[in-house]
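Entry:
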Amino acid sequence: MKRILHTLILSLISLAVFAQSSPKREFRGAWLHVIGPVRYTDKGTEGAKRFIIDQLDKLQQAGVNAVIFQVRPCADALYVSDIEPWSQFLTGCRGKAPSPHWDPLQFAIDEAHKRGMELHAWLNPYRISTNANEVLPQSHIAAREPWRTFKYDNKLFFDPGIPENRKYIEGVVRDIVGRYDVDAIHIDDYFYPYPVAGKDIPDQATYAKYGNGIPKNDWRRHNVDLLIEELYTTIKSTKPWVRFGVSPFGIWRNKKSDPRGSDSNGLQNYDALYADVLLWTKNKWVDYIAPQLYWELDHAQAPSRKLVQWWNDNANGVDLYIGQDTKRTMDKADIRAGRPDELQTKIELSRSLPNVGGNIWWHGYWVTDNYKGVRDRLERDFQSTIAVPPAYGDKRVRPHAPSRLKVEDEKGHAMLSWHQPPLSKKPASTDAVRFVVYEFLPGEKVDLDNAEAIVALTPCTRCALPGVLEKGSVLVVTSLDRMNRESDPVELRIK
């Protein structure tokens, strides 16, 4: 019994030390997809709304501060669009509007922002259908203009080599960014389709028309490069503060193919998907990358332990977050560390590397379903503190600070309120849109880098404080602008 008690005490001490090391600034994301298993089609409008609220509540409890929400899985829309039809993954039938009417993207933005969370709109650029034989609505551009498309692996895609397709996709993105208060546009790993042995991509006619004598593989990469560069320009010209993120397949190239590559032996972005991620980061065509390192730490062909180090060394100054497979992480023991799963090791590893700014969990439903206790672990041990997402843009620029801090008793609870700085006539990157609330106990040093002191990250101008305020406590509020840059602090000492 004494041994068990001693072990328990040591474990608690270990977890406490780990929690204390949690950074104040960290990207903690989760992907919420709609393609695949039924998520929305069986719920109706009110049921779908309740489902989103439940997911966001559970993710917030787990310490997640950014939701990557799939809004365009197959050239369709989980939002009001004059360009593409309503998604079958929302209503069960492509082109069928939800009834009663609602806008899932707007709803998700509102609910995420209420909780102080970012909302990243996730799009697949080229995929039109997961079933090449699907009969598309006549209003769909692929039905009206089939010359834009090709079939491959029983799926239908926009041909990346056709310039009109690139402009079309850019128009979709411009529409979303212009009409919705998204924090980022996010695209995943599907560029040219994943290769099928013995089957070539049927783009010979397109290559003959547009190839200009460039080797075909280089031409395909160039097509994807152009899309990435032009999407970045489109986003920044519409709303400069909206970020552009990509979550590529986890291997750029293997070392055997390129001395700059990773110590791995798997499918290569550069050669198989025609995605030159290093070029994008070098040229700053993306704001962040989230390579999908879904493998186990010591996987034979793709060891994520080595790959996360490689991406850290090759981020080229672009923000780097690691895409983690929740299920594999919880299923695989970390033999080297003597742990029943890889969760702690992967988080420790990401936090130890200077260029890694956080993690994104694939998928978020495994987190919310608490697969093998992962949500409990994140909430209790590894993401117990509130984290502020990393700042970006010109970090010398700071928003105006809040003012007029005041504490009042509200039904037996201490309620802190403040005044928001004036907003610009038109939305601007420096507008104060969220606030960080800190509480420091009597005698405790006021240190804004202390994540343990953060009690709220909120868009509101009032906040209920936990527990009873002690005389000598110091309350601090700062503003965050649209680029997560933090203002000077404003303090209130409890007398």
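The first helix runs from residue 2 to 20.
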